[in-house]
Structures are given as C-alpha cells and as structure tokens.
Amino acid sequence: MLWEKARLHRRAKDFIVNESGAIALVMVVALVALMAAAALAVDYGYMLVVQRQLQNAADAGALSGADAFGSNSPNSQAAQTAATTAATAIVTGNYWGNQQYLTYCTVTPGYWSNVNKGFTGTTSTTATLPTQTPPAVWAIQVVVPKSSSNNGGPLQLIFGPILGIETVNLNGTAVAMVKSPSVTWSVLETGSSSITLNSNVTINGGSVGDNGSSLTLDNGVTVPQGQVYINTATSVTNNSGLTPVQNSASNTLLSQAISSANAAYTNFIGLSNNTGTYSNAGQSANLSITGTNTVNVVDISNLLLDNPYNITLNGTSAMSFVVRVSGTFTLNSNTSVLLSGGLTAGNVTFIATGGSVIIDGGTMNGSILTQNSSVTLNSSATLNGSIVSGQSIMLDHGVTTPSTTFMSSSSGSALVQ
Asked: What is the pLDDT of residues 335-361, one digit of tens each?
C-alpha cells in the first residue's frame, strides 16, 4: 500500500511540473499579439502616408484656388468658378498611394474670421464680409476626401481585416485666405469723410483709398502708378476718366489698410518725446530742429508759417523724425518743410492731433498722419510723402505728390488651417 501511494504521488507531481504545453500556449498567444501589433503598425503607417498625400494636395489646391479667387471680385460667380477650376487642377495633379492620381475635391468659397479663427462658407454672389476687428478676409476651403466613391473609395487596409477592420475614410482639409493685392498708398481716408481731387492733381507713387462718404475726381486727375479704391458705400463724382475699384475686395483692402494706419497712429502718439517741445511756432521766424537720436520725437503746438519762413529738420540718412503737431498746422504762401544733412522725406512723419492741416503753395517733405484733422493742399503745393487722414482730404489746383509712400499692404494667399 505504501508503495502504491508513493507511485500515485510521483505521477501527480510529474503532472504538476510538466509545463511544456503551457509554454506552447503562451507562445501562440504572444505570436498572435505580435502579429496584430505589426499589422496595426503597417496599416497605421500606410494611413499616415496617404493622409499626408491628401493634405498636401488640399494645401496646394487651397493656395492656388485662393490666388484665383482674389484676382476677381470675390463675391462673384466668376471668382467662385476660377477658384474651383484652379484648385481642382492642382489637386488632380497629385496622387495617393502608389501613383494613383486624385480625381475629386470640393472647393467652398467664404471668409476667414480673424476673431474666431474659423472659416464660414458661402456660395452667395451677394455675400459681404462681416464687420470685425481685426477684419475678416475672403478665403476658400478645399477638402480632398478618400471615402465612399471619391478618389477610389475608402482606404483598403492590408492587415486590418484580420482584426475585422477592412477600410478607413480619410480626407485632407485646407483653408487659404485671400490677402490683399500689393498696394502702396499715397492718399488714404480712414474715417467716414471725403476725398476731393480737383483741377489737374497728380498722385504719384501709389494709390488712393477712400473709405468715407464721398469721392470727387475732377478734370485732369491722374494716378499713374496706382488705382483708386473706394468703399462700396462711398458715393462717387467722377469727371477724370479714372475707373475706381468699388467692390467687396476694395472693402477688404481698405479695412486692412485702415487697421495698419490706426496702429501706426497709436504707436507714434505713444512715443516718448526725446528731441524737444516747441510752442506757438509763429509767422515771423524760421524753425530749425536738429535730431540727436535714431528716432527723433518732437512736439509742436500751433505750427503756422508764412512766406518767407520755413521749418527745417536736420538729420542724417539713418535718422527719422516723428513731429506731433497739436492745434493748427499751416504752411502758407510758399513756405516749406525742408530737410538737411541727408535726412529723407520717407523717414519724416507729421502727426496732426486736431484742428486742420493746410499747405498752400509750398513743399511738404514728409508724410501726414492724422485721425482727427482735415488736410488741404492748394495752389500747386508739393507733397513728398503721403496723406493718411480720418477726416476730409482735399488736393486742389495742380497739387503733385511725388513717388514716396506711407505704407504698403501685403500680397499673396496664405494657409490658415
């Protein structure tokens, strides 16, 4: 009996310690898991490659479509057709997978909100941009799907069917905003007032922009290097033969220019005075100011000069002047703002903080920037600079603005999403 019990105990022990079958089972499970992980890695990598190809096609299509969109009036059928044609041509020149060309995309016009950082689509040909600060801009969205019956249908996975996942839907999506055409400004009205160009006025160097209530272009007015852009709400009296640009694209262009001008005004007003303060610069004396800084900030109250007196700014070509004038700003009867020492008109800006600016028959070497002052140039006055004002602007009787400009807007389309 003892011998029999010992034999049974030995058999039970052998059964317990014999693990060869368990190891084989673990190996099978591990191998299956390893193969599943490898399958997922292969399929996931394949998905990433195709997704990147779809996204590249969408990016390129959006940029091309936005360029075509912006070269037309963006709320027109012609603009929408041009954008769709251009974007589709680029997308279908790209491929997915192994040289399999894309055949389909959707192109949606609309606008990009710089406030909400989002795209809103619209196919209306009477659409207008919402009033926002910073301003909204026209844009298009391009979607390149690989799903359903589009571009060969959903992506077929290689190992996914082992796990019961045979296909996945993918798409590339891109939004490109239409930036303004490249424009330099010689005369820009930033408020709700008016511009009047009378009797043989010549605007050299840049364009005219009127966001205000009315624009008058009289006989002999020319803008050789630019165009006239006006708001769609601006009334026009035109005897010049010029053709102003008046559509939603000009609204956008003006909105962006006004934003830049207001920012410049705020920046200049906020600068610290480092060169001096001059009060009541009267009719009976020349005024000479010498710069000592890279940026020379001067404050003057009531600049009123009459023949034969002038104001002279002395500085080098590496210097700039910001001259802030409160009260009246009047150059009468052939008086001038003169520059010496290599200082250039492009580096001089007069900031008028109230009242009015009148230049009558003299030469103004520098730009005029104001939000609250009207600006008048009369009697063959010459402006070597630009006028940016939120109040009325009048150039009359042979006034000429040579080819210097205050600022320029950016150009070209840009991806935003």
From this structure: 889 999 999 988 999 999 988 999 887
- Closest alpha carbon to 181 in 354, 389, 413, 411: 411
- State the pLDDT confidence band at 36, using cuts at 50, 70 and 90: low
Q: What is the CA radius of gyration of the chain?
A: 35
The backbone torsions φ and ψ at residue 79, rounded to the nearest 5 degrees and listed phi first, read: -65, -45
What is the C-alpha to C-alpha distance for residues 275 and 285, in angstroms, rounded to an integer?
Answer: 20
Question: How far is the C-alpha of 134 from the C-alpha of 116, rounded, in Å?
Answer: 10
Q: What are the φ/ψ torsions at residue 44 (nearest 5 degrees)?
A: -65, -45
Give this prediction's pTM. Answer: 0.62
Q: Residues 64-79: what's their mean pLDDT?
A: 77
Long-range contacts, 234-239 (Cβ 8 Å, 24+): 234/210
CB-CB contact of 304 with 282 (8 Å): yes
CA distance 147 to 106: 13
Q: Are 341 and 316 in contact (CB under 8 A)?
A: yes
Pick from 236, 233, 261: which is nearest to 131 by CA? Answer: 233
State the Cα–Cα distance between residues 325 and 393, nearest whole angstrom. Answer: 18
Q: pLDDT grade, residue 30 (50/70/90)? A: low
**C-alpha of 397 from chain center:** 36
Buried b (16+ CB within 10 A) or exposed e, 29-62: eeeeeeeeeebbeebeebeeebbebbbbbbbbbb
In angstroms, rounded to a whole number, what is the distance separating the alpha carbons of residues 80 and 86? 10
